[in-house]
Amino acid sequence: MEELNDLLQQRRAKIDTYLDAGVNPFANDFKTLHNTGGIRINHEQDSREDLEGTTVEYRFAGRIMARRDFGKAAFLQLQDGHGKIQVYVAKKEIGDEAFNLFKKFDIGDIIGVSGFPFRTQTEELSIRATQVKMLTKSLLPLPEKWHGLTDVETRYRQRYLDLMVNPEVREVFRKRSRIVNLIREFMLEHDYLEVETPMMQQIAGGATAKPFVTHHNTLKMDLFLRIAPELYLKRLVIGGFDRVFEINRNFRNEGISIQHNPEFTMMEFYQAYATYEDLMDFSEKLICHVAQQVCGSLVIPYGEKMVDLTPPWERLTLKDAIVKYAGVEPSLLDDPAASLTFANGTLGLELDGDIGHGKLLAEIFDEVVEPKLWNPVFITQYPTEISPLSRKNDENPDVVDRFELFIVGRELANAFSELNDPIDQRDRFLKQLQEKEAGDEEAHAMDEDYIRALEYGLPPTAGEGIGIDRLVMLLTDSASIRDVILFPQMRPEAS
């Protein structure tokens, strides 16, 4: 820390030197006309001989990432948002006064450069500077200058440093932006209307999760940050928009892990006159399209293994998946007592004896099956008990017309044919209300306006939510959700 304070004082002292020389160390009068990426593209085919005597002058700016001094000259590595390029600064080119100020430049400073392209003896494309101008004096030294920033806590807390020194991190977030844009283009091409719905809601609904609570002073009422946009999007289908989607931020007051962040991004979409089976086909096409565009293949690396996204994707009922991966007889899953004995005895789950049979099967699935679902698989026929907004299956009312998509052992999407019977929906909301009154923090209050909207008539509809963060994790081979969220939620920094 003492060494850092000394460096800080040294750099602050240089500010006075610049000011005494009439140089603003935080100037904003240098107009850039080019960037490093464009310069490289322009001359990627040019040899040393091609560049001799060139009159093409470039004007760009960036951060000094490395420096090698040779008395009356120096080589810099300058980085902007498009990459890096080498800059050669010589006293005879920029003059004595400018060179004397240049010698005080530090790694981390942001400077403007004008100059001509050339190739060095080692054939590296470089810029011979005719002008170097201080634009922003950096007061703090870059971390681990030669090795990049590797400390995970620092990388997440100070993402600006992470982006500054780790080019592979910048590439992840460039890919994230492209993924979101590809999804949006795909939805628009398939006649979906992009909409925006409230992020502050009077009643938290549309999912089973504990909400964050805020307060509106003027209205003198508590509001909830949305846990899902579902109920508002379905109101829009009722209103006459047959296909809608929203790429949205959701907030759930739950744990933090490599898969969960309290604030996350999801795309939710609804299509009238469609079923959950239609959305399985649609999801497969959407994700394969994005993967092919971003990764160039449908067989992609994740961790130490490969993931094969080649369609068609496997489809299994929840019970069949448990039978397949837990090695139990189907008859055991039809017997609540035997299922509970298996869950508590064999799996050691310690579940309460009063747990509903549907919730019990879901717990067994989460424990045994989910971690084993590596390549894409649609899991269908979820218990009605854990699906309060889904349409009951016509042949078996104990399950609903729903699927969840799993890839690399985690849920990526959740979809179902929507419950559009207002009488059934009221009954399910009432059951949730009873659970809330019994202490379930993830159950929610009755949404009377949504019931009223259903009474006007929701067309037969299917809807789905796709986790954008988890999709980005998959397509960028990222192990943690924090690696694909620019500013993940962190515990307070230790003082």
Structural account:
The structure is a single chain. This protein has 495 residues and is α+β, with helices and mostly antiparallel strands. Strand 8 (213-216) and strand 9 (221-225) form a beta hairpin. The model has no long low-confidence stretch (mean pLDDT 93). It contains 17 helices and 18 strands. The chain has helices at residues 2-20, 36-43, 48-51, 91-94, 96-102, 152-157, 159-165, 167-189, 230-239, 276-295, 318-326, 330-333, 336-346, 357-369, 422-437, 448-456, 468-476; strands at 58-69, 73-80, 83-90, 110-119, 125-136, 193-194, 200-201, 213-216, 221-225, 243-251, 263-272, 299-302, 305-308, 314-317, 377-380, 402-407, 410-417, 461-467. The longest helix is centred in the middle third of the chain and has 23 residues, at 167-189. Strands 6-10-11-18-17-16-15-14 form an eight-stranded mixed β-sheet, sandwiched between helices. The two termini are 14 Å apart. 36% of the residues lie in helices and 24% in strands.
Topology:
Elements: H1 2-20, H2 36-43, H3 48-51, E1 58-69, E2 73-80, E3 83-90, H4 91-94, H5 96-102, E4 110-119, E5 125-136, H6 152-157, H7 159-165, H8 167-189, E6 193-194, E7 200-201, E8 213-216, E9 221-225, H9 230-239, E10 243-251, E11 263-272, H10 276-295, E12 299-302, E13 305-308, E14 314-317, H11 318-326, H12 330-333, H13 336-346, H14 357-369, E15 377-380, E16 402-407, E17 410-417, H15 422-437, H16 448-456, E18 461-467, H17 468-476
Q: Give the overall form.
A: elongated
**Gyration radius, in Å:** 29 Å
Query: What is the overall pLDDT average?
Result: 93
Distance between the termini: 14 Å
As a percent range, the share of helical residues equals: 25-40%
Biggest sheet character: 8 strands, mixed
Q: Supply the helix-strand structural class.
A: alpha+beta
Tally of DSSP β-strands: 18
**How do the strands of the widest beta sheet line up side by side?**
6-10-11-18-17-16-15-14
| Count of separate DSSP helical elements | 17
SS strand fraction: 15-25%
Note poorly predicted spans.
none
